[in-house]
Each structure stands twice: as structure tokens, then as C-alpha cells.
Amino acid sequence: MELDLQLYSVRTDLAVEAKEMAERHANAPIPGVNEEVEEADGIKVTRLSVADPAGSQAIGRAIGNYVTLEVPGLRGGDTGLQQKVSIVFAREFEQFLDKIGIGRDSKVLIVGLGNWNVTPDSLGPLVVENALITRQFYELMPDQISPGYRNVSAIAPGVLGLTGVESSEVVQGIVDRTRPDVIIAIDALASRSLERINTTIQIADIGIHPGSGIGNKRRGLTKEVLGVPCIAIGVPTVCYASTIVNNVLEMMRTHFGQMADGGAHTKEIMGLLDDISEQERLALVKEVLEPLGHDLIVTPKEIDEFIEDIANIVASGLNAALHEAVDPGNVGAYTH
User: Fold this and answer.
1) N or C: more exposed end of the chain, with fewer CB within 10 A?
2) Radius of gyration over alpha carbons of the chain, in Å?
3) Main role (predicted)?
4) What angle do CA 139, 145, 148 make, to 5 degrees?
């Protein structure tokens, strides 16, 4: 019987990683996937556009637009860098809204997905806590609102295990009553790369499926489901143990290949693992780990400090992007 390697594909929510894996497998650029990269001050911005069904199938991502900010320096806790990231994120998000046709006066609903009781999954609720909310003023005192602010509301609907209600059902009820023009959904993601955990922010206009990063298939927050454009903002906070083991094996293989003898003993050390593909190697790792219950979902030990920092970065950037009156150079002043 032939092994179905699709069952053992690397789990990632990041479009840039899906593209990298597809190009590595094809050993060539992927048609229908356009990429633009900028890098300055330690912040790498990658803008991906999946333009047609062929490109979508090749990388396993829906047709749409994806923007990724990668900032390895965030691991250092540098507050100056964090403010720079907030400013860049605000600029990219504002341009993203313009690109998909969301006007400056559009009503916005921010949805913070995740479980506030589980630190790696608490990004969404923390962003909601720090977002600048104005809908109540539009409802109660519209004539007293200063120029430069837009109608923004927010909700952290919890998770199915806590509420017994799907997040999309909660959001659907709010959409039906408040009629926002766009939904911004924030959630924690899973990555295949240890380097991107806690250092990456992704924006996408395809919506989001809560829990997809850890293998839970839930009713999505998408335009097709809710009838309103849905922008997803995600930060990878977890990685599968099998992915980590597979990455370590690849790092060992690369390390041995760079040794002074030109990797002459790589085959001797790695054995069969040196010949098989990444997917086949991952299948072997999962075959060993899963029966033992060891294919864990892993997060770095610094997650408590990081999740607060990245939630502030995202909330501050959103506040500046959504409200013209908020100074992008002083975005942190509007969070609490």
C-alpha cells in the first residue's frame, strides 16, 4: 500500500512558509503566486498575492492577498524596535485596507479569537482589551465625535469549549445587529519554523478558521459565511513537536554537509534519513511520536512576556491604522 504523504504534511498557517515548501518541492518558482519583499531596520515585509487556482492549489492557500512581517529582533524585548514594528504594521494594514477597497469611514468589528485562560492562545482577547473602541460614542453622542476617528467595535467570543457556542455563530449575531462593513479577526497561529515563532505577524484577506493551527476544523469567519469582508491577523505562537524534530534533523544534515570534509560522512551519520524527502522524514517522525502521545504542541518558555508585547504591537498598529487622529509615532499611548 502506498503511503499518503498528504496526511503528514507540515502544519503551518503562514502563507510564506507554504510558498517556501512548495518551491522547495518543485525546485522552481510557483506560477500564479506573486511576491514582493522589503527589508529595513530589521523588519522584513513580504507581500504575497495568490492570483489564480493553480497557484492556490500549489501552495495550499486560498486566492487572496497576504502580508507578513518578520522581525527576529522581537525576541530581545527591545521597546524601540517594538514601536517601529507597530508603525510599520500600521502602515501596511492601512495600505492593505485601501487595496481591498475598505474606505476610511467603514465601520469595523474587531474579533479577538482564542482562549484568554491559555497564554499562547490569548492573543485575540488581549488585542481587543487594548483596541481603541468608539462605537458607543457613535451610538450615544455622534455629534461630539472629533474628526479622525471611525466607528470601531470589538468582541472576544471565547472558544467552543468554554461557551458551547461557535465563535462564528457569536460573530454572526453581532454582524446581523450592528452591520459592520469589515471584520478584523485576530488569532494565534502555528508555524513550521522555530525562527518565526513569536517574531512574525501575518495579515490576510481570506478570513480565518478558528483552531485550524492545532488541527481543529471549525466554522470559519469568512465573507462567504458572514456576508462581510473578513481580514485575518495572526501571530504564530506554537509549533508541533514533530515539526521541531524534523527541523532539527534537517539542521543536522545541513551542519554535517558544511563540515571541512565536505560532508563525506553525512550519509554514514544520517543513514536513510539523508536520502528521503522532507515529507517522508516527517511521516517517519510522526509515526514514532504519535502512538506515544508525544506529538505535542509546543510554545517557548518566554510566551507570557511575549504575548503581552505582541498584543500591544498589534493593537497599537490597528489603532493607528483605523483612526487617522492617532499618531503612528505614538501609538502605544492609546492602549491600556
Assistant:
1) N
2) 21
3) Initiates the rapid degradation of small, acid-soluble proteins during spore germination.
4) 120
